[in-house]
Write a structure and sequence with these properties.
By secondary structure, this protein is mainly alpha-helical. Helices cover 63% and strands 4% of the residues.
């Protein structure tokens, strides 16, 4: 239960309103500082194994207190010392008096700071990828269901050649599969900063091990392995290269662009009343207009996706101004941009999953829109049929042109329905093909290979991509707000 005091100060809506508990925890103080303590334990264990005078009792004492962090004491220490890492060294040492002399031995602040950030980035990707897989899976089922349902295609948001509802959703899925590969690559490319010292030279550790280079390299390898990484960066300054942050946040920003496009499409289709996002039984679309069914989930995704895309400018600028071995003007903004990028990506994927699990299609509305445009689109078919029946192409083209303009005037100037078909039926010139008109105007003859493309795309590209996540597919997404 939250105290009234909590409502008297700003709280990030990313956490208080939207993000999942698992992603909120991933960037929490509890996760951050308990990871610092684990890293100090890893360091002590490796240093002991390589011959430094560290006792089992000291390590066991640290392990017993890895999770019981006195946050009040740490805050008081930081106010005095103006240094967050040393504040937590003192706080840890307070509850581990025998281990106090060897906590943080040979390390610099970035040993815990940067390595913890890399762990959080890695774990953040591990939270996001199954969520993205579920979105792709839901949209794949939607595409399969509507693979052969004809619908108006749009270019320039003007009616164009027909496609199918399923084929259109495959355009969304294809972008999402690219995002999945981007996230997987960014996650797999992550390395550990490891044990590198104050300017990345490992000088302090070389001194601890009395000039033994092999032991220093083994120390780096052991700690990297304990932290769950396959590799560490071979060279660093005081920090890992801030281009790593660009790489990670680029993949998230790209995902944001994809989601914005998908949800904009849904908003446009909702205006046409062809497709709608789920709408709860008691949901209110507008405080003033009770009849409205606003696409508020899609609008939320677009809003947050813009924030996600905008966050990329932060690591781009930060990496460009890292002087020599490091400068501290990367610190305060990274506290915000790294966490917010993953929290925002988490929110939009959860919301998009909810949308994709309840998309509603209105075939009769789609059919009406097709019927309004199809006679114009069928003119080439009519001309070809007349030529086959012995007609002159140029004469037929002219007759169709005149009838089309007359029908267009009815639609645009009088607000009437497209009556081109009835005009063709009344014109004696077209008697030879009247019996073919139903076939010539069958919407399914205008969708080309769309159904076949859906089937092949899902089987060859989508399902293999989802295979590693098959045990995590059953989670249904309910939104609290």
């Amino acid at each position: 239960m939250e105290s009234a005091e909590e409502f008297l100060k700003y709280r990030s809506p990313l956490v208080s309103r939207y993000a999942s508990r698992e992603m909120s925890f991933n960037f929490s103080d509890k996760k951050k500082f308990s990871t610092w303590r684990k890293l100090w334990i890893f360091l002590a264990k490796a240093e002991q194994a390589l011959g430094l005078p560290i006792s089992d009792a000291q390590i066991q004492e640290m392990e017993r207190h890895a999770e019981d962090i006195d946050f009040v004491m740490a805050a008081e220490e930081e106010r005095k010392l103006r240094h967050d890492v040393m504040a937590h060294v003192h706080t840890f040492a307070h509850c581990c008096p025998s281990a106090a002399p060897i906590i943080h031995l040979g390390a610099t602040s970035c040993y815990v700071g940067d390595n913890t950030d890399l762990i959080m980035l890695r774990d953040g990707f591990d939270i996001l990828m199954p969520k993205l897989a579920r979105v792709i899976d839901r949209l794949a089922k939607f595409a399969e269901k509507y693979a052969d349902l004809p619908t108006l295609g749009f270019t320039h948001y003007q009616p164009a050649q027909l496609t199918t509802v399923g084929k259109r959703s495959c355009l969304w899925i294809q972008d999402l599969t690219m995002d999945m590969r981007n996230l997987q690559r960014a996650r797999e490319d992550l390395r550990f900063r490891g044990v590198k010292g104050t300017t990345g030279t490992q000088a302090s550790f070389l001194q601890l091990f009395q000039g033994d280079h092999e032991k220093v390299e083994e120390l780096d390898r052991m700690v990297t392995e304990m932290a769950g990484f396959k590799k560490a960066y071979l060279v660093t300054g005081q920090t890992y290269s801030r281009k790593v942050d660009i790489d990670c946040l680029s993949s998230l920003a790209s995902l944001g662009a994809t989601v914005h496009k998908i949800c904009t499409d849904i908003r446009l289709l909702a205006n046409l009343k062809e497709v709608e996002e789920p709408f709860e039984k008691e949901q209110i679309g507008s405080s003033a207009m009770p009849y409205k069914r606003n696409p508020m989930r899609s609008e939320r995704c677009c809003s947050l996706a813009r924030h996600l895309v905008a966050l990329l400018t932060n690591p781009l600028q930060t990496a460009s101004v890292q002087w020599l071995e490091r400068t501290l003007d990367d610190s305060a903004n990274r506290r915000i941009s790294l966490a917010e990028s993953f929290l925002t990506a988490d929110i939009i994927l959860s919301t998009l999953q909810n949308i994709s699990e309840g998309l509603v299609v209105y075939p009769k509305v789609i059919e009406r829109h097709i019927n309004q445009e199809l006679p114009f689109m069928a003119t080439e078919n009519i001309i070809m049929a007349m030529v086959t029946a012995g007609g002159d192409r140029q004469e037929c083209h002219e007759r169709i042109r005149v009838l089309s303009q007359e029908a267009a005037a009815v639609v645009k100037q009088e607000g009437g329905d497209n009556d081109l078909l009835s005009r063709v039926q009344r014109d004696p010139y077209f008697v030879p093909i009247l019996g073919q008109l139903d076939v010539l105007l069958d919407p399914k003859t205008f969708t080309g290979r769309a159904p076949q493309q859906v089937s092949r795309f899902l089987s060859e590209e989508v399902r293999p991509l989802l295979e590693p996540f098959k045990t995590k597919m059953d989670v249904k997404m309910e939104l609290e707000l």
